[in-house]
Amino acid sequence: MASPHDRSRKDEDEDDPVDRMISRTGCAEQHYAVQECMAEHQDWRICKSQVQTFKDCMMNFQIARKEQLMKQRQKTFPESAPS
């Protein structure tokens, strides 16, 4: 059994909750493009197109997720559907 005091990690990205969350959105590639641009240029203004692409991807995911949740809600609570 591993020691609870052993703080070393096999792969830091492996347990990163932000990376896991972004991966579930389908926008990981765009996120990594923003990270690479920022690492290279260290100026977000140079990375505006990558940031916008990532933002658009996340917005599309949020819209699709909202629609999915609304459909689930209508199936569960049909009386709450808008008239």
Automatic annotation (TrEMBL):
InterPro entries: Coa4-like
Listed Basic and acidic residues bias regions: 1-11
Domain of life the protein comes from: Eukaryota
Region ranges (Disordered): 1-21
Protein name per Swiss-Prot or TrEMBL: Cytochrome c oxidase assembly factor 4 homolog
